[in-house]
Structures are given as structure tokens and as C-alpha cells.
User: Fold NUDIX hydrolase from Salinactinospora qingdaonensis.
Amino acid sequence: MASGCDAEGMVDEQGERAFFESLPRSRGAATALVCDGAGRVLVVKPTYKPGWSLPGGVIEQGESPLAACRRECAEEIGFVPVVTRLAGVDWMPPRLHPDGRAATVFVFAAQMGRRGVGDVRLAVGELSDVALVAVAELGSYVPAAMLRRVRACLATSSAVYLEHGWPAAGLEVAQG
Assistant:
């Protein structure tokens, strides 16, 4: 029963569970777009994939995107930066992932505060390097879709909605 109720209007818990189990699955991730006082972006080099990335990772079961962002930063870089706002949400299409599932990436703007790159403590076995990179040089570090995502998030003080790093059709990206 799609309604989740039996003939007498009582909740059919097994039917309701079966319905929810049948729904499509997507993955959630949260990243921190951490900038220093000079406007440089903190990037990390994972050991399990090529290239560089922003600190962050998968949202665990029952965890909020903001909690995931803070947890991943603590795990990956050894501290939680000062999170200032939700900067953007980026939907990543299923074709990009080996399991064929879409992913939604929550991007939180954050500041280094009084910390410097020397204060970063990389997660052993997960990350091999860290750098503070000028936005103009990010293209040499991160994939094109991530570069589009970062630029879109930095271009406005409002949260942006993106699809694979591009502003979604029919939505305007506010400037400043």
C-alpha cells in the first residue's frame, strides 16, 4: 500500500518500510571552502584519488551536513575552521560515480581564523599534502567541476544551487 495504512486506517509499518526501502538512493557530502585572510583557499591532497580537493567527505547516517563538515575537517585537517555560512549546494549526476548514484554536495564557507597552514594536521593514510592556493591558481589543483563550484560559491554572499558546478538552468546566480 502506497499510503502506508491498512484497510482500517492503521499504519502498516512493514508496508511503509517497504515503500521507503524502494525509493532511489543518493549520497550526501559536505565540504569546507576554507579561506585565509588573503583570500587563498585551503586544499588537501587525498591518497585514494588523484588531484586535490576541499576538506570534507560523506555525510554519515543521521548526521546533518553541517555536522559532517565539522567532523570531516576535524578528522582531515586536525581542527574545525570558523564556519560562516552555507555557500552552495551542488548536485553531481549519477554518471560520475561508479555506483551510478547521484550525490549532493553541501559547501560551507569557512575561515582559517588565526590558524595558518602550519597548524594543519593531516589525517594519516588519507591525505598526503595541504596548500593554501590563490583562487586564480586553483585550476592547477582541482578538477574543473570543483573549480566552477568554488568560484560560484565565492562570487556571492548568498548560497548558490549548482549542478555539476554549473548554475542550474532557470536560476540566476546573485552577484555579491
Q: What stands out?
A: The helical segments are 13-22, 65-77, 144-154. Strands lie at 27-35, 41-46, 56-58, 82-92, 103-111, 127-133, 160-163, 166-167.
